[in-house]
Amino acid sequence: MTDIGHLIFNLLIFPGGLFAIVLGLLLMGIDRKIVARFQRRVGPPLYQPFIDLVKLTRKEIIVPETAHLQAFRLAPLLGFAGMIVAVILIPIAGVYQGLEFSGDLLVLLYLLSLPAIALMIGGSASSSPFGAVGFSREMVMMMSYELPLLLVLLTVALKVGLKTGGIATFSLSKIVGFQLENGALLFDYTMLPALVAFLIFIPGTMGVVPFDIPEAETEIVEGPILEYSGSWLALFKLTNALKMVVVLGLAVALFFPTPLGENTMLNLLWYFLKYLILLVISITIVRTSTGRIRIDQAFKFYLKYPTALALISLVLTLVKG
């Protein structure tokens, strides 16, 4: 298969495209099922997100008369396309090596912001007052959780760079390769605060309770996506599923990419188990044990705690190497 053929396969089938969509929807179903059990409910079946998606694609698309049509259409496509590309940048140790180019970690940082930007574009283009409120809240949330994410990525890049005789390594493939040779960063005490900071970043970027402020149903009735329906709303749902795969996969690649031998299927199962552990710790438990907070509280929280934790790891990395 040619390089172009490999790229198309990666984008459309594995690890992006079909594989990532199925994995993301399955993780969403597992999350909903576990939440229901925590709340002493039976809960929906694991395949409920798949059913919801099919139902949305069969519904009529309704566009507000006063909406900016081009921006309204572009928004869901922008977020979805960004996550499809982001998935193929993340290596799966023992299964998939990634695209292996210098600076892919920085590209991933920009791609991760596209779903939030898509929500802001969609909310502002819808002409709905609820969309406008959701737009402003989404912008504040993105500014708050992007700082600790940037510090975590910088810390990991510096750690690997200093250990390999350089300054900073912004190649995710090299970061994973370093850990395969020298052990996972999860077991380096200087990286533990950065790991905790990243775990706190996950519910914020995924927009789950208590950080679902831009789409708070009881306040602004879904906010930016209130006016979306049919296939366009389905694209937003798919984007969330893909983003979950990207964020959890990035956490594994940064801190614990170690495979189990050379068996591809075994490594895929091992990777899926790590996804489940991260899902329960960073999303499921958080949203079942907390209530919604205000946007100003969320902003101050991210500027204080995960940012401070990431800075601690950054300083320890600079001092200890």
TrEMBL record:
Location within or outside the cell: Membrane
Membrane-spanning residues: 6-30, 77-99, 105-126, 147-170, 190-211, 232-256, 268-289, 301-319
Name of a matching Pfam family: NADHdh
Keyword terms of this UniProt record: Membrane, Transmembrane, Transmembrane helix
A GO-annotated cellular component: plasma membrane
InterPro entries: ComplexI_Subunit1 (IPR052561), NADH_UbQ_OxRdtase_su1/FPO (IPR001694), NADH_UbQ_OxRdtase_su1_CS (IPR018086)
UniProt entry tagged with the keyword Membrane: yes
Presence of keyword Transmembrane: yes
Membrane topology (UniProt): Multi-pass membrane protein
PANTHER family on file: FORMATE HYDROGENLYASE SUBUNIT 4, FORMATE HYDROGENLYASE SUBUNIT 4-RELATED
Name this polypeptide is given: Hydrogenase
Lineage: Bacteria, Bacillati, Bacillota, Clostridia, Thermoanaerobacterales
